[in-house]
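Task card 7
Instruction: Convert sequence to structure tokens.
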Amino acid sequence: MAGRDSGGQRRLGRRDRRGSVHGVRRWRLERIAFSGGKGTGVAQGRVVNGQLVPVSFVSTYASDKKSSTRIQFAGGNVMEASIEPEPEPVPDRIALTDAHRRGVVDPMTALLLQVPGTADLVSREACTSGSAIFNGQMRFDLRFEFKRLETAKTKGYQGPAVVCAVYFTPIAGHVPDRPGIKYAATQRDMEVWLAPIAGTRVLVPCRVRAPTPLGLAVLEATQFVSTATVRTAAKVQ
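Output:
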């Protein structure tokens, strides 16, 4: 989808977020579109002992060139990962080790927040977590911090949202001197708006704001579709 400028902001893309949570045991997220190109992403996983555990992640992106990423997980560890076309070797890239592929999630799962307890779901407590992320090429951390509460309005959802600051820390698989990495690591104005999936303790992004060298990037959901079904035990006659 083509971006557009609005209110002095550089709108880089729009997102159609579709999610499903079955019995609060598994999820599927899909369909992301960006301006300047076209991309899709699908993440699937399960909830194990109250934790979101990814099973698979697939993303594709097409602009001047096409690329795709596939990752298979088991028990929070990367079992297989591939990028096509394969990135060219870069001497200054921080090497990835097996340790960097353990205890991680994919980029989409990282923005799903499972909030424990029974207190108000949309609250500052939702922004107290962080994630260790592997995207197929790079290992990095995202840390969240509470900023404020807002009212989100999009097709399929109008209601409260919690806004978290997002802080990026590269760990491995990156080139430290690249301007984009340096810029992202020093930013303190990135934020994500999180809205609840009905019937669950899970929050998902409905809006992302991040400064870029070209201006403020705003990624918004144009449609918010979520379903939650709770499995019940079959009656025995």
